[in-house]
Each structure stands twice: as structure tokens, then as C-alpha cells.
Amino acid sequence: MSVVKRISRAFFSLEVAVVLSIFFMVAQIYATLGFASMTEAWKYVYETKWFEAIMWLLGLNLVGVMIRYKTYKKTPIFLLHVSIIVILLGAAITRYFGYEGTLHLRNGETKSVIMVQKSKGNPSNVYPVKLGFEVRLDKFVMRKYPGSMQPSSYDSYVTVIDKKHNKEFQYHIYMNHILVYGGYRFYQMSYDPDERGSILSVNHDPGMWVTYFGYILLAIGFLWSMIYKKSRFRLTIKKLQQSGLFAILLMLMIGGTYAKAFDFNEYAQKSKAVADEWSKVLVQQRGRIEPMDTLDLDIVHKLTYKAKMYGMNYNQIVAGMVAYPDEFQKLPLIYVGHPAIRKMLGIKGKYAPYNAFFLPNGNFRFSKEIDEAFKTPDKDRTKLQREFLKINERVYVAFTVYTAKIFKIFPTPNSKKMNYRWFSIDDIKQAVKMNLMDPMTANFYFNLFKDLATGIKTYNVKLEKETREKIYQLQKDYSGEILPSPGRIKWEITYNRLQIFPKLIGVYTTLGLLAIILGFIEIIKLKRFPKLETTIVLLGYLGLLIHTANMLLRWYVAGHAPWSDAYESIVFIAWGSAFASLIFFRKSMLALGAGLFVAGMFMMVAHLNNINPQITNMVPVLKSYWLLIHVAVITSSYGFLGVGSMLGLLNLILFAMRKKYDLDKQIKQLNNIIYIALYIGLALLSIGTFLGGVWANESWGRYWSWDPKETWSLITMIAYALIIHTKMIPKMRGEFIFSLLAFLSFFFVLMTYFGVNFYIAQGLHSYGQGTAEGYWWINVIFAGMGAWIAVVLVTLFMGIVQKMNKPIELKDDNHANDYHPEYKGEK
Asked: Cytochrome c assembly protein domain spans which residues (predicted)?
């Protein structure tokens, strides 16, 4: 064999593909974690020759591997791999021949030149490019949510003037609605602070349709491989007597001392009915009209992290704070998380009264500490400083309740001219001082709010109801266009009071643990318990049904799909885990238990203190049908990958028990189930990521911008693609390595979701981020990903775990020692 042939044979191997893929992953990890800004990441990684060389080597290696292993003999597998080459080709065309710029227009201004950014690593390096036609901004319009400064949409009404082709037409550009003309695509990017000018992103991308064609081939390849008779996926499904295609298609479619002067026990017993009437008053909050019930729940959750305290529900607590401010300021209601702050306050429990935070002269007790915390950069803040900032926020929320600043319930006759702004009692006082409201009208509003408080004090349900109806009539007269329907208000209150999602934590976790325990008992005793299995499955279905119904209810109440923010998407991932286990893996108690347990864990994460469960308005970019498709598909993939990870851990436990019990058959079967979970998860993740690319192209003009969320989705896809292919690499074949990597790979998913949203917290996907203090958990994620990379490299080059990883041979399993059935071109 010639030297050239040996070198080419060595290069066009799966081992080299693994090494190149890991280099590619590490480069992206370095770009997202090693720099403070995207500009630096572009300058030192994405625009460099060495990064470009890795992508070219990956493409060449893939072509060689496809030829060497004769993938062309299996059409769906061939399409899957060809799609990657087509996508890389489209990306290359975009990189070398495409460009993007900006067009800044003031109202009435006409331009025919865009400013193109030569390098994203050097934003100041720009040059002009002539369009060949003119664009005039006729009018820029900013629309905001009622009574707020939060943008609902921003729109550019333009006229295109093409003298060369004698064309002139008007067009309406807004987020997710672009102008395509003359080889350019115009996107609504930003606007001037005075709202009289628009900034459009202009994109010229000849590689777009090539890339899109690659996306289509990828989706066809994944779906075809699932039904192809000779594919490993189909063979595994057949052996387990399960078929999940139709379900996949369906998923794609779719402690203190009480004050003696006031009897809190009496108030708790007598105020429930009157507080119920108080809860039905409509209030304007964050640009949204909602029942007081929702605001009360948000307030009490912010102050206490609970919905009930001292025998009172959240409506009774807030109503009491309004009617009896002096008494409730003595009641320990504000949560204090840090022991050092509790010691400073002189409290024994975790809750402190409002009065405890103020000195005898009325000054705030922790002003100095909070000022220092604000001055300290976020990354350098200590845990104590973060807790001081949270205390500051809770005390301020309590202050807005006691002063009635937070209750914006009164519209004015000129409400429409003021973007339907509603007023609180404090706002009305300020309006009178500034001569914006006459004293007679103000006095009328004061009396209405006073009647609400009187109704609570006297437990007068009739007075409370009559006052609420008077306020509603005012709201209807002056702001009827923006009021939600009575039905929606009723269901929102029902949604708040049912508190279904927190209850599902215990349901899923308990069922999951019971199923796992039962699965181990059945394996050890070699005996099944059909009645217990059926009971667990039926209870699981009931939990999933309730979960689904509550998601649909939140959808109706919020007016948008319930996966638009951190809380909603975590809840949806939990739904995906439960769905995957009950629909696909219910015949295996270990698999079922893993899925339900993972669902319970995600539900628990969704209800941690740092995750905000409030129903909020959507930012303009999310107002698209792509939200339904992209987010639903990609978060569903997390459910399947989570099930696969948990099953990998359970299979490792079976390996530990292997010497004592004959578990080879069970390990082999569970390994097959893991493969199915990971394959479906990878398919959904890949399709969902590239659908996100199409959405990004329709929203801000580029389908791939190396945004941290995009980048980590790609890293995760590569990690799982490598796991799927380990069965083809001799040193990596075997159930032990497959199960270990299946478990460790989920750390990449955790980084993609939690790490990007809460730790990196930058990029175009910032609308999905939340707050997460301390970041201790990021070290766990880093350790898990590091372990994954170490296991792959050590196994590939040193074979240290090769003996433990020896593939299990079963006499009655015809496929026990086969290579990947799709790659029989070479032994």
C-alpha cells in the first residue's frame, strides 16, 4: 500500500472525524466562554483562518468517510450525511460571497447606499455599497404595550424607487416581515431614540438557498432513516416492538411574633370571601391587563416564595397589607436567605417584618451595603451582596403595596391618547400636583380605592363587589378596547389558584422513583408485576394529561404559546420528558421511571426561586408562527435526551450489579432504548436548530451568526452525533461507553439551556434569560462536559476502559456484534 493511500486511509477514518469534531467543539466553547463580547469572539475565533481550516477538514473528512464506508448504498443515511456537506457548502458561499450592512433612514429620507461591515471582529471597519435602487422611509411607527414603555412592535413604512426598471412600490417592514428586492433582504433591526428614524439590516446572501436545501435534506434523512427497514433505528424499534413515527410527526406539528393589637387569626378566617372579590379587580401591570389575583400571587411569591402563609392565601395577604398597613408591617413576611443578614436583623427564622429593615429615624438599614453591591460588577459580586440586592427588591415591592403605588387600576377620560395608561392612587396625587387631573376626578378615584379598603376592613363582601363593578365600568368606558374578555379573566384566576405545575413536581418524581424501583425488582427477581406497571402507567398518563391541559390553559390566558420564556420552556421540557417516556418507553419500567423522574426534576427547577413564573408580554421578535415550530421541536428534543441520560445512569448501575446478577440481556435491551431516545432527540434537536436558523433569517437577516445559543446547540448536536456513531468505532463500541456518554452528554444540553441563558447571558437570545445567582452549578456542568471529552479521547487513543467496554454478546441476538447496519461497506 502506497504512502499516499495510507495517509488518505488514515485521514478518511471515523477516528479522525471524532478528533476534528472535538477540536471544532473546543474552539466554539473557547469562543463563547473565553471572551467578554461577541466582537472579540469573532476577531479571535470565528473569522480566523485556523477555525476556517477546521471546517474545511471536517467537510473533506466527511466526504472521504462516506465513500470509504459506502453510505451511498443506504439512501436515507446517504441523504443525512450529504445534507451536512450541502450545509457546509452553503455556509462557505455565504462566508466568501455574502455581506450584510445597515440602512439608517429618518422619516422622509431617501437613500440608495448601505454601509457594509467588513469584519464583525472590527465593527468600525465599514464601506459603502450601492443598492442600484432607492429606499425612502415614509413613516416609522413604534407601538407599545398599554400603559408601558415596552415595545409591542416597531414598523417601517417604506417606498422602493427603482428608476432603472421603472418600478416604484410601497412596503411595510416589521419584525418577522421582511422586504426582498434586487437580491437584498431588508429587516427591521432597530430605531432612533426619538422614534423618528429606523435602522434596517440589509443582507445579500447567495448561499442562503443552498443552506436551506441542506436543511431539507437533513430532515428527510432523519425521518426516512426512522422508517427505513435496514436502518439500525428501525431494527432496534422492531426488536423492542415499538413504533414512534406517528408520535414524532404529531410532535412536529404541534416563624415570627404576631402583634397583639390585631388578631391575624380572625382576619384569616373572615377575610377570604372579601379578598376573593378584591382579587377580581382588573389592574395594569407591565403593559398587561390582568386580574388582581395574578398581581397578588406575583407579590406574595416575590416576598415569601410561597402562596400561603399564616393561614392566609395570597389575596388575603395583599388585601390585608392594603387595609391594615401598620399591622402587616409588623408581620414577618419578607424572606431573608442569608444567615448573616438574619443575624444583622436579629431574627431567628427566615422571615422578617417590613419594619425591621428601617432604623428609628426612618432610614433604610442596609443602604450602604446595597450601594456597594450595585457598584460591584455582576461577575465579582459575593453571595452576600447578591442577597442584599434581592432584599432591596423585596422591600421595595412591599413598599409599593403599602403605598398603593403598584395598583394601577384607574383609567382616565383621555386614556387612549396616553397609550391607555392607568393610574394608581399615588399617580393620581402626582397628576393633581402637575395640573394633569382635576381635584374632583381625583377625589372620586380616592373614594373608590377607600371603599375597597373599607370593604376588606369590615369584611363587607357586598361593598367590595359593588366598588369592583364601579371600577370595572370606568375601565370599560375609557379602555374597553384593551380589556381581556370576562372568560379569560375567569380562567386566569382559575389557573392561578389551581397551581398545577408546582404540584406536578411530586407527582412525576414519585411515579418516576416507583417505576425505577419496580424496574430493578423485576430485573433481579426475573418477574414482572403487570398490575403495578399498569397502575403507574395510567397515573403517568393522568399526570401528563393534567400537565397538557394546564399548558393549554396558560396558552389561552397569556395569549401566546407557553414556551416563550425561561419558566415556560422548562415546563415544556418537563412535558417532553414525560411524553417521551409514556408514549415511547412505557414497556420498560426503568425507561418509564427515568423519563418521569427527569420530568419531575425539570418541574422542580422551573419553580426555583430564581425562575420567574409570571405571565408576561412577548418581545416583538417572538411574535411569529416560528415560535410554535422552532421552540416546540427543540425543547421536545431536550425531553428525549434527558430520558436517554437518565437511562444511561441506570444502565451504569446495572453494570455495577452485573457480577452478582445475570443482567446482560437487560443491559442490552436498555442500551437499545437509550439509542432510540438519543436518535429521536438528536433528530429533533437538529431539525429544531436549523428551523431556528430559518426563523433567524426571517427576523434579523442571517440564519447563523455564532450567537451563543446557536453555537451551543451545534456543540450539543455534534456531541450526540458522535455518540450515535460510537457503535462503528471498535475501541468505542460497547454498552458501557455508550451508556456513560449518554449520561454525560446531557451536560451539553444543560449548558445550552441554563448556561447560555443564565451564565453567559448575552446574544440575540437574551429574551429567554433569567437570573441565577452564585453560579455554583456551572462548575458541575463544566465538570460533566470535561469528563465527556476526556472519556472520548482516552477511550479512542488509549483504550483504558476497553475491557470493561467489551460489547455484550447474546446467543439469541442476531445483531449483538454487528457494526452499524448502515455501514457494512467495510469490516
From this structure: 563-760
In this structure, of 277-281, 616-620, 639-643, 669-673, the range with the lowest mean pLDDT score is 616-620
For residue 434, give the DSSP letter.
Answer: T
Neighbours of 715 (CB within 10 A): 21
| Domain termination residue (choose one: 34, 66, 97) | 97
Domain CATH number, residue 164:
2.60.98
Q: Both 34 and 124 in a single domain?
A: no
Nearest residue to 422 via CA among 410, 437, 439 = 410
Collapse the DSSP code of 223 into the 3-class scheme (helix H, G, I; strand E, B; otherwise coil) and give the result: helix
Residue 462 CB coordination number (10 Å): 10
Q: Which of 166, 113, 165, 102 is nearest to 135 (CA)?
A: 113
CB atoms within 10 A of CB 345: 17
What is the 8-class DSSP label of residue 701? S
Owning domain of residue 729: 229-252+499-823
pLDDT of residue 625: 56
pLDDT of 300 reads 93
Which of 143-180 are b and which e, b meaning 16 or more Cβ less than 10 Å from the residue's Cβ?
A: ebbbbbebbbbbbbbbebebeeeeeeeebebbbbebbe
What are the b/e assignments for 17-33, b being 16+ CB within 10 Å?
A: bbbbbbbbbebbbebbe
Helix and strand numbers, DSSP H then E, in the chain: 30, 14
Count the neighbouring beta carbons within 10 Å of the beta carbon of residue 754.
18
Both 126 and 15 in a single domain? Answer: no
pLDDT digits (tens, 9 = 90+) for 561-608: 776 677 887 888 889 889 888 887 777 888 888 889 888 888 888 887
Handedness of CA 29, 33, 36, 37 (dihedral sign): positive
Q: Which of 159, 105, 107 is nearest to 133 (CA)?
A: 159
Mean pLDDT of 371-396: 82
Q: What is the largest CA-CA distance in the chain?
A: 101
> Residue 476 and residue 734: Cα distance in Å, rounded?
68
> Coil, helix or strand for 617?
coil
| Residue 527 and residue 637 in one domain | yes
- Where residue 422 falls (left for φ over 0; alpha for ψ -120 to 50; beta otherwise) is beta
Residues 6+ apart with CB under 8 A from 686: 218, 222, 717
Looking at residue 481, the DSSP 8-state letter turns out to be G
Confidence of residue 110 (pLDDT cuts 50, 70, 90): very high
d(CA 708, CA 705): 9
Q: In this structure, are 625 and 646 located in the same domain?
A: yes
Q: Is 124 helix (H, G, I), strand (E, B) or coil?
A: strand
Which helix (H) or strand (E) segment holds residue 795: the answer is helix 776-797
| Pair 754, 610 in one domain | yes
Q: How confident is the model at residue 747 (pLDDT cuts 50, 70, 90)?
A: very high
Ramachandran assignment for 195, one of left (phi > 0), alpha (psi -120 to 50 degrees), beta (any other) = left
Cα–Cα distance measured from residue 403 to residue 425, given in angstroms and rounded to the nearest whole number = 9
- The pTM of this model reads 0.71
Residue range 327-348: average pLDDT?
90
Strand partners, 177: 174
Q: Are 132 and 111 in contact (CB under 8 A)?
A: no
Q: Among 35, 63, 97, where does a domain finish?
A: 97
Instruction: Report the alpha-carbon distance of residue 319 to residue 607 in Å, rounded.
Output: 25
Nearest to 279 by CA among 263, 297, 291, 261: 291
On whether both 565 and 675 belong to a single domain, the answer is yes
Instruction: Report whether 316 contacts 272 (CB < 8 A).
Output: yes
- Are residues 720 and 678 in contact, defined by beta-carbon separation less than 8 angstroms? yes
CA distance readout (Å), 448 to 410, 452, 470: 10, 6, 8
Run of H or E residues at 469: helix 461-479
Q: How far apart are CA 796 and CA 466, in angstroms?
A: 76
Pick from 630-639, 666-675, 816-825: least confident:
816-825
280 vs 215, more confident:
280
